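From the shared-data thread, chain only:
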Amino acid sequence: MTTASFSADTTRAVTEAACAEAGIPSDDARLMRLGENALFHIPSCSVVVRIARTMDYWADVVREVAVSKWLHQAGISAAQVVDSVGQPLAVDGHPVTFWRFISGEPAPYSRIGDLGSLLRRLHGLEPPAELQLPNEDILDRVQPRVEKAPIAESDRRFLLRRLDELSDEVAALEYVLPASAVHGDAHIGNIMIAEDGAPVLIDFERFAYGQPEWDLGMTATEFRTAGWWSDAQYQTFVDAYGFDVTQWSGFRTVQAVHQLKMTTWIMQNVQESQDIADEYDARMRTIRDGLASTWSPR
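Structure, as tokens:
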């Protein structure tokens, strides 16, 4: 199964095959999200099935399972794997994992302070040597996405040139925060609010050892570029963490990198709907021409 066939229908077939192998019923599986991964909820057994796009992500998925266990040992509220299933499983060319369903709701924007607090705690942890976190490569997924995406060749050439430019800028950055374990995809969508009101950190596939500025730069880019946060909300995030990355001299590069990543992420599903195609066009206008454009949260 190829990246091009990563759709609601094909990932449902993978879910059914994976559940059959794991001994988990899948009759009531429903698609929760289709993006970098596909997520299916199985209400009857309170399980979430997570499907990565290709086997290229196998090492990331193995690490994700290990990180979940480490975070619980360290006392951080985080998503948990289903212990009764040996995982990940390799099914039809996809790494598949099984997670305990978090009964609650996605964090509303009013809880942005929880993201800042959780990142502060995470960045202060010393990861165990056996976890073997890789060094963060902030741009590693951009080129494969661009090369495979169903986009105009003019867009493809532009995005690859922009990638080269930003790679040089990233190499020249001088950071101000100490290196640490980093989440790698630190946005409000990766916080759930459990029924008891506690924030729960999710999605550990991009965990690495690197610079906290990149984790903080995600929300800062959503604030400065996409306009998803009010001044007061962004200040709540800054106060919870204790550092404002937008005041650092390297933020311009961090912002440009996150703009590129956010655009190439949505680009993967540009053929799924007209809404996604329109959103991709809006983001391209921003990074190609520097034109102000409202970005829709996805």
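The CA atoms of residues 135 and 209 lie 5 Å apart.
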